């Protein structure tokens, strides 16, 4: 509904614009739409071209990096194989394995350490080398070995798995557990054999992850570029500590896509920004090189071009606005003169005449205007005659209203005098006391109290204490009628007696509880009335609870819907079921507002609770509601 109203208002505003402004607005709309469409299409084309060029460049660079790393890894593998095939290495290791002399370990350690140190110093990606044999462990003496390290019990040994035909095992990225410097490394494990010896022989080459990362950083040094190497399972091998790479490593869907293909490209969105991700598999190691590019950085120049395009568009719109205003003014100037003549007519100057020498549409409109002004003059004369007649009719109606008011006052004066009624009830009570009819005396006193509260000198508001006294009198009368069929309790805390309320709001509810709750129940029932403050607010809660038959859920929902919607009691006949509760609800909402009133809660065959919510008001605060009440 709100959208419809807004649309209607918008069309009304457009319809009320002057013609010259409508012409200018139409021309401006054409200029803006055509310019924006062109700018958007151009921007999208340039952005697509830049993305494509960036992808091609990234793919070429990934291929170059992959080839370079493959060559470096091939060189390390060749050096290890050359070491294994070296006759001196083979002879020294065989003498150690097939003999028990202890001096042979020291001799072998010296020779192997020199070989390991030479490989490490010439292969820049190598951090450390280590060899494990059943006769001892051999390491690079230029590095300090971790004395607690033993290959057989190491984490690397536990995860070591060689598939049939596999020459090299590529381990997970970790801290070097062999040497004390504990540098971040990627282990390569070579398994080989000596003729005639059945034990396992392993050479571990730890690749320096920081050196590889530094090389990658030199290749991808531009802003908005990040590089990482992942293994075949999508686990990190080498990566920076930037948050963008962290986002990728936490993106399982992206890692699965990278692990599934040899090369490719896709886009992802992290933290509200778009990124282009390219990846390329390596030939030697089971790794994937991944390049992450920020499209925000990639499209920085395109965005600058977009800003320039926006300025150019704004300038075109401004120039178009000046031109269209000039053209529209020249077209609409005669209409402005006609509008001026019409404005004089609206100020009741009917002697005006529109003069225009041409016979175009404006000229024909001017002739119609002059004819209309002449007709209006004649109609005004007739209207003045009608006004004189209406004044005579108005005077007659006023006289009839005065007579009607006098009749209403006479009817009010004819009503029963409350004091006569009180005196009569007092006489009946006196006669009942004299005759020893105590029940009749108590009922007469209760009825007198009930009438006194109901009449209340014509006032609509009474204290909470008087209202409870009134309902107690009513319950006393009903209890005399029904005997032991029900009992009642009233709980009124100290300090609430003098607060004010609309009169006669409890009696209809209690009556409803007796006739539709207690009366329909097998056995005696109880009606409880409680007054309490609502916690955390300036409101009062009047609770009327009975353990009668209750209300069926469907009927309960209908009652609460009608009460919440403020259904007027006039919608029901005065004898109809529920007339009293809707009357109470209507009066409370009328005086205090729609947030106050009645609400029912009930359990079928178990009882009903009626909650009456009213504001907690004293005698002074109720004054404004008395004015609303009309006295």
Can you walk me through this structure?
By secondary structure, the chain is α+β, with helices and mostly antiparallel strands. About 55% of the residues lie in helices and about 20% in strands. It has helices at about 1-15, 20-85, 85-100, 105-120, 155-160, 210-220, 245-250, 250-260, 295-300, 300-345, 360-415, 420-435, 440-455, 465-480, 505-520, 555-565, 580-590, 625-630, and strands spanning about 125-135, 135-140, 170, 175, 185-190, 200-210, 225-230, 235-240, 265-270, 275-280, 285-295, 460-465, 485-490, 500, 525-535, 540-545, 595-605, 605-615. The strands form four sheets. Strands 1, 2, 3, 4, 5 and 6 form a six-stranded antiparallel β-sheet that branches. Helix 10 (about 300-345) packs across helix 11, helix 12 (about 420-435) packs antiparallel against helix 13 and helix 13 (about 440-455) runs antiparallel to helix 14. The chain starts with a helix and ends with a helix. Mean pLDDT is about 80; it is low at about 405-425 and about 625-630.
Helix content: 55-70%
Class computed from helices, strands and strand pairing = alpha+beta
Number of helices: 18
* Computed Rg: 50 Å
Oligomeric description of these chains: single chain
> Care to count the β-strands?
18
Largest sheet: 6 strands, antiparallel
Q: What is the approximate shape?
A: flat
The low-pLDDT segments are 405-424, 627-631
Give the averaged pLDDT, no decimals: 80
End-to-end Cα distance, whole Å, is 41 Å
Q: Kindly estimate the percentage of residues that lie in beta strands according to DSSP.
A: 15-25%
């Amino acid at each position: 509904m709100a959208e419809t109203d807004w649309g209607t208002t918008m069309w009304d505003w457009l319809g009320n614009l002057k013609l010259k402004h409508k012409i200018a607005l139409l021309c401006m709309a054409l200029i803006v739409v055509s310019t924006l469409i062109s700018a958007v299409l151009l921007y999208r084309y340039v952005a697509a071209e830049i993305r494509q060029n960036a992808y091609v460049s990234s793919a070429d660079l990934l291929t170059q990096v992959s080839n370079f790393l493959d060559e470096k890894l091939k060189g390390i593998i060749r050096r290890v194989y050359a070491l294994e095939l070296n006759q001196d290495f083979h002879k020294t290791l065989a003498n150690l394995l097939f003999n028990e002399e202890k001096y042979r370990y020291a001799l072998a350690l010296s020779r192997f350490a020199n070989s390991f140190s030479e490989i490490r110093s010439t292969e820049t990606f190598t951090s450390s080398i280590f060899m494990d044999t059943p006769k001892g462990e051999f390491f690079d003496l230029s590095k300090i070995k971790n004395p607690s390290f033993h290959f057989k019990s190491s984490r690397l040994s536990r995860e070591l798995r060689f598939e049939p035909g596999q020459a090299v095992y590529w381990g997970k990225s970790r801290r070097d557990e062999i040497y004390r410097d504990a540098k971040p490394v990627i282990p390569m494990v070579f398994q080989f054999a000596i003729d005639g010896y059945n034990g396992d022989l392993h050479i571990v080459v730890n690749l320096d992850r920081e050196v590889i990362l530094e090389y990658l950083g030199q290749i991808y040094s531009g802003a908005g570029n990040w590089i990482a190497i992942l293994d075949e399972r999508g686990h990190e091998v080498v990566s920076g500590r930037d948050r963008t790479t962290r986002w990728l490593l936490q993106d399982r869907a992206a890692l699965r896509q990278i692990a599934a293909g040899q090369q490719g490209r896709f886009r992802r969105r992290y933290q509200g920004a778009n990124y282009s991700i390219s990846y390329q598999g390596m030939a030697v190691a089971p790794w994937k090189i991944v390049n992450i590019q920020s499209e925000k950085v990639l499209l920085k120049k395109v965005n600058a071009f977009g800003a320039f395009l926006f300025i150019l568009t704004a300038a075109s719109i401004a120039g178009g606005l000046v031109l269209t205003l000039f053209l529209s003014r020249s077209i609409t100037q005669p209409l402005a003169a006609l509008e001026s003549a019409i404005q004089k007519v609206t100020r009741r100057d009917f002697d005006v005449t529109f003069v225009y020498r041409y016979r175009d549409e404006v000229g024909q409109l001017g002739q119609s205007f002059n004819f209309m002004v002449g007709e209006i003059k004649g109609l005004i004369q007739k209207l003045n005659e009608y006004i004189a007649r209406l004044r005579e009719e108005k005077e007659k109606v006023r006289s009839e209203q005065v007579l009607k008011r006098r009749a209403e006052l006479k009817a009010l004066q004819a009503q029963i005098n409350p004091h006569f009624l009180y005196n009569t009830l007092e006489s009946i009570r006196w006669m009942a006391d004299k005759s020893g009819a105590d029940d009749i005396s108590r009922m007469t006193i209760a009825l007198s109290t009930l009438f006194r509260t109901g009449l209340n000198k014509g006032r609509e508001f009474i204290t909470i204490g008087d209202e409870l006294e009134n309902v107690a009198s009513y319950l006393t009368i009903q209890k005399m009628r029904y005997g032991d069929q029900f009992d009642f309790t009233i709980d009124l805390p100290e300090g609430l007696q003098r607060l004010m309320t609309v009169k006669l709001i409890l009696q209809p509810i209690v009556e409803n509880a007796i006739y539709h709750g207690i009366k329909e129940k097998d056995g005696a029932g109880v009606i409880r009335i409680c007054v309490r403050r609502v916690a955390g607010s300036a409101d009062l809660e009047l609770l009327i609870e009975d353990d009668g038959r209750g209300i069926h859920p469907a009927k309960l929902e209908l009652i609460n819907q009608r009460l919440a919607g403020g259904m007027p009691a006039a919608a029901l006949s005065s004898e109809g079921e529920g007339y009293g509760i809707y009357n109470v609800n209507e009066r409370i909402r009328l005086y205090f507002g729609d947030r106050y009133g009645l609400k029912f809660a009930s359990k079928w065959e178990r009882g009903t609770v009626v909650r009456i919510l009213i504001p907690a008001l004293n005698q002074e605060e109720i004054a404004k509601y008395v004015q609303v009440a009309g006295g």
